[in-house]
Amino acid sequence: MTTKLAEYGRSQRFARWLTSGELARRIGAANVSKIAGRLDWFEREGIIKPDLLDSLIIALELDRAVVEALIREDEEESFREWNKWASQWVGPHLITRLIPGVWMHGAIPDKALSPSDAEAFAIGYAREKQRSVCLVLSRRVSIWVRSNGRVAERIEAAPGQPNQPFMTLRSGSKRFVLDFGCDALLRQV
After folding, report:
1. In angstroms, rounded to a whole number, what is the distance separating the alpha carbons of residues 124 and 34?
2. In degrees rounded to 5, what are phi and psi of residue 110?
3. Which CATH number fits domain 4-86: 2.60.40, 1.10.260, 3.30.1310, 3.30.460?
4. Distance CA 56, CA 86 (A)
5. Interatomic CA distance for residues 117 and 152, integer angstroms
6. Model's pTM, two decimal places?
7. Per-residue pLDDT of the chain (189 residues; tens, 9 = 90+)
8. Do β-strands 167-168 and 175-176 pair in parallel, antiparallel, or remain unpaired?
9. Which regions of the chain carry the CATH code 1.10.260?
């Protein structure tokens, strides 16, 4: 997903008849192909590190006020899109911790779909199975319950801050869940 800032950067590069490699050289990159790849990624996905953006502004002689205005517009659009996504109803469900980094999704019984009934179910389930669980009430709100049935915390999601279990590897740039989701398995555990 590109951004207005990325489209602006690409249009300014094209207006100067520069390839990504030539722009990387103009920036003064030691590793031209690496920086050219990052510039291509920026133009495709709209993701760029602040120091590279500063170098890009200087190399293309961009107006900082325009860049800052585009950043604000992109942030506002991103928040609107996140808010739209977060407002979609997903229904409550339970995520059970099997071992560190491995979680299993499962359904909440139909009789426990209200927030208070779902919380009571999650507490009882965690205590009975001696497993930590995350009760996801919506894409915005979750309740984390320890294996002894005590509520550890209530989390409200925000852009870039999920309220469900995830793992990161090394640099922390990618989040993922190793999930063995099976409703029938959850009820049998």
Report:
1. 52
2. -55, -30
3. 1.10.260
4. 33
5. 18
6. 0.69
7. 789 999 999 999 999 999 999 999 999 989 999 999 999 999 999 999 999 999 999 999 999 999 999 999 999 999 999 999 888 888 899 999 988 878 888 889 988 888 999 999 999 999 999 999 999 999 999 999 999 999 999 999 888 888 888 776 666 555 555 555 444 333 332
8. antiparallel
9. 4-86
By C-alpha distance, which of 132, 112, 131 is closest to 121? 112
Residue whose structure tokens are 């502004």:
57
DSSP 13: H
CB burial class (10 A; 0-12, 13-18, 19+) of residue 84? exposed
Q: Are strands 178-179 and 102-107 parallel, antiparallel or unpaired?
A: parallel
